[in-house]
Design a protein that fits this description.
Blueprint lengths: L1 E4 L15 E6 L4 H14 L4 E5 L3 H11 L17 H19 L8 H4 L7 H12 L8 E7 L22 H15 L2 E5 L3 E5 L6 H15 L6 H13 L2 E5 L6
Parallel strand pairs: 3-5
Antiparallel strand pairs: 1-2, 2-4, 3-4, 5-6, 6-7
Helix pairs in contact: 5-8, 7-8
């Protein structure tokens, strides 16, 4: 895997996500390589947390730009000099702090119960969910950007790249409800987001009871508990063998 550290305001052939971009990863062999880099980065930067981009980097950034314009989290940029890297970073810090505050504000939060059943995937979509977790590295784009964010909790990493734009997908606050549930009830930390997928990692795979609880939650979230029972059984088995979990937040998983 090639690692290229990013300097704020540098001129290069690459276009980082924003001024929080810390590293550009390419020629990635597997997701474990990315997670190992993040683990080393966390140890070297205890004051920060790290968010990875996942599937379809360009589309992820595009929809995040529009999702950030939602009136619940929008931060005005009329006075920003976008030719001044310091001014841009100051704007992005203020915007991050604003979104963090909104995610933590009970007036805007969405509950897990309100999210369950809103995507309505098909049994084929559930099969795609299982296939992606079977080969977790497939969720990575050719290039992954690692964002270094000054947030106090892993669930608040979502504020650095808020996503969920189209009306048929989960929005930013619905995604945050899912992220909180995975951490608080199942022990999965949020580590990445793409154009369609949320990435989670645990310290260790769940035991049999924990995996069963996870699948019970996911069948309630996505539906098709009966007509995709074989797929759910496989996902339960996969969960017991791997600490990573990938969940889709957009319609049409396939």
């Amino acid at each position: 895997m090639k690692i290229r550290l990013v300097e704020n305001g540098e001129t290069s052939a690459y276009r980082p996500v924003d001024s929080f971009s810390y590293a550009r990863l390419s020629e990635i062999g597997c997701l474990d390589e990315v997670l190992a880099f993040v683990s080393r980065s966390r140890a070297a930067n205890p004051e920060a947390r790290f968010l990875c981009t996942l599937d379809d980097l360009n589309q992820c950034c595009y929809t995040s730009m529009h999702a950030a314009g939602n009136d619940r989290i929008e931060w005005p940029a009329e006075s920003v000099d976008f030719d001044d890297p310091r001014a841009v970073h100051a704007f992005e810090v203020a915007r991050l702090e604003h979104v963090v505050a909104r995610l933590d504000d009970a007036r805007y939060r969405t509950t897990w119960e309100a999210v369950a059943g809103t995507l309505r995937p098909s049994p084929a979509d559930i099969a795609a969910l299982v296939a992606t977790n079977r080969d977790a590295s497939a969720v990575l784009d050719d290039v992954v950007y690692v964002q270094r964010l000054p947030v106090s909790r892993d669930d608040l990493l979502l504020a650095g790249l808020p996503n969920g734009y189209f009306s048929s997908d989960w929005d930013v606050f619905q995604n945050h409800a899912v992220i909180r549930r995975m951490e608080e009830l199942h022990g999965y930390r949020f580590f990445g987001i793409g154009a369609s997928w949320l990435g989670f990692v645990a310290d260790a795979p769940p035991n049999a009871q924990g995996a069963a609880r996870l699948i019970e939650d996911l069948t309630g979230l996505y539906g098709h508990a009966g007509d995709a029972s074989d797929a759910w059984r496989e996902l339960e088995s996969l969960a017991r063998r791997s600490p990573t979990l990938l969940l889709c937040y957009t319609e049409d998983f396939t």
